[in-house]
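Notes from the 1:1 (GR / supervisor)

We went over the backlog. Supervisor wanted to see one worked example end to end before approving the batch request, so GR pasted a single chain during the call. The sequence is below; no edits were made to it. Supervisor asked that the structure be written out right there so they could see what the output format looks like.
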Amino acid sequence: MTVNSVVDEVGQGAQIDAVLQSRSTREAVAERSYWHPNGFLKIVLDGRSGQSQVRLHVWPSPVRDDDPHDHAWRYRSQVLAGALLEVRYDEVGPGLGAELMWRHTYRRSGPGRFQLDAPVLVNLREIERRVYLTSMASHGDATRIHRFTPAITPAVTLLAVGPPQQAHSSVYRREAVADQVVSPRPTTAGEVGSWVEFARAAQCST
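Structure output shown during the call:
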């Protein structure tokens, strides 16, 4: 099954409805979901770490700028509510309008934990800005460096990711981090239910 077909299938609402109809399903989804350090709620509707996944990403309110990053997998997403700004980047040679940034390795290091380390100084140049409104879709693979921030909140995206194409992703920061353990805040079945219900209503109104 392709990443695109997963989004199309979930877009019909079956998996979202299953979460709304069963508390045990909401609890199971909450167990594998969490508040991402960049300020959004990552709700994993289906799949587990290291596999293909179907998710909702929820920004209840405005957040500070996301760190530029890439991903270990292909993805496709569709905006269900609100709007999001994507800023894309490329690593380039010295000059060329680039900014010096530290590229870090980012990987899972245990249950509920991620590791940020191995900084390397690189030149990062902004190449594109785009606003995604409700019903608009975006996609990318492991080569896409970007950041997403909400332009209108609450913002919700439906996201399908494929299996990992590489062992880790990269996070770019202006200051080097030698070794940092990141422990995202867990979510609850109640939060999952509320935001899945919001996403379902938004989906039905588009």
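Supervisor's comment: The helical segments are 3-11, 14-21, 23-31, 189-205.
Batch request approved.
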